[in-house]
Design a protein that fits this description.
mainly alpha; 98% helix
Length: 119
């Protein structure tokens, strides 16, 4: 009977050890499943953030292009206005010079005639 009792104790110990091993394997499986879920969530969040970043980057690039176009248009307007103003000023200058020269030559002629009459 002593050997039977020892055999039963060994079998009982083995069953307890197998139960502990089974619980450990169940806990490991649950931990692995939780890790996979967290990893999947992290990947999903990363992909969403990456997509949002790409959208913001595209918007930034488009805004920059629009601003560059507006600045270019303003520069063209300024250059055009400058060119027209410069041209107008040159025309006014030519007009005044031609009128002044004409009036001066007329005045000189009158002065010369008056000097000739007086002499």
């Amino acid at each position: 009977m002593g050997k039977t009792k020892e055999a039963l104790e060994i079998i009982g110990s083995l069953i307890v050890i197998l139960g502990i091993v089974w619980q450990i394997s169940q806990a490991k499986a649950a931990i692995d499943k939780a890790i996979d879920a967290v990893k999947d969530e992290a990947i999903t969040r990363y992909l969403v953030l990456e997509k949002r970043f790409e959208i913001h980057l595209e918007n930034y690039i488009l805004r920059q292009e629009v601003l560059n176009m507006l600045i270019s248009q303003l520069n063209e307007k300024i250059d055009h206005k400058h060119s027209r103003t410069y041209s107008s000023l040159r025309n006014i200058e030519k007009y005044f010079y031609s009128n002044i020269i004409a009036k001066l030559s007329e005045s000189v002629s009158i002065l010369m005639m008056s000097l000739n009459l007086c002499s």
